[in-house]
Design brief:
The complex is a heterodimer of chains A (201) and B (91). By secondary structure, chain A is of the alpha/beta class. Chain A has helices spanning 11-22, 54-60, 77-82, 84-104, 141-160, 182-185, and strands at residues 2-6, 26-30, 45-47, 66-69, 109-113, 164-169. Chain A has a 6-stranded parallel β-sheet with strand order 3-2-1-4-5-6, sandwiched between helices. In chain A, helix 4 (84-104) runs parallel beside helix 5. Residues 181-201 of chain A have low confidence and may be disordered. Chain B is extended and about 50 Å long. The chains are: A alpha/beta (201), B mainly alpha (91). The interface between A and B is medium-sized, with 39 and 30 residues.
Chain lengths: 201, 91
Amino acid sequence: MKFVVTGGCGFIGSEVVRQLIERGYKVKVVDNLSKPESMVKDGYEFHQFDLADRQKTLDIFKGIDICINLAAKIGGIGYFHKYPATILSENNKIYSSTFEAAAKRRIQRMVYISSSMVFESATQFPSKEQDILEIPPPLSAYGFSKLIGEQYCKAFNDEYGLDYSICRPFNAYGVNEFPGDSRRDNQCYGKRERSKPGLQR
Amino acid sequence: MESGKGVNQDFNVSTSEPTRIIDLARKLWKILEQEKEFRAENVKGFEFDIRKRIPDTSKMRNLLGWEAKTNLDEGLREVTDWLRAKLQNEN
């Protein structure tokens, strides 16, 4: 079984890739390396480009069985508030490019990594998966953008029969992600080099 | 993913234990063995931001048999140990 992992050099992506390789799967990684601490490692086929490029994305999806789709404009909470247009516009380009490629190549499944931010307007706790059908959409651009990705899953399944799975991590943290002050810095990389808008994972 | 039971499904991926930010700060203060007394300062939040997130994780457990293996205390210890080592190497 062959995987493509978009944003596979990011914090969550690099761990996903490590575990796939450990299980003996063949993996392609696409990442634009916009995160300062992004690292390309051995054991997989690596491609550096912007997934908004539809032709390059279509080429990469050839022979793929499963896509784990993590690529997105992302940063700290401050980033979400400072660049709402970038987040919505650029993430939509990535969704269109990757979902269309997946449908055209007839891959087996799109695994979309969403976010707990889709539950921004939740009033019932603990929140169940089906609550998403009843609560109002998020007001933040990032939450709304992640919810759009979930709608892509359902729409491409309805129209093209593209199977999907949606994972919503709640406050992912761990080794290999550097802390910082997202309130003041707009980014979460502390004293390390700040990323410009367009950060991708 | 490998079982096929997750096809066309959505899953909350998390522990199910809620943690208040103030309690997280206190935990970190303790793990980092700070000598000064813990003191928190509140800063103004954003107009639109998530206030509270508590997931029900039973779907993931029941359908896929998966649940979080690392609790918050263990996870924080692992991260702070790694970060300490990393910062020591950089200095």
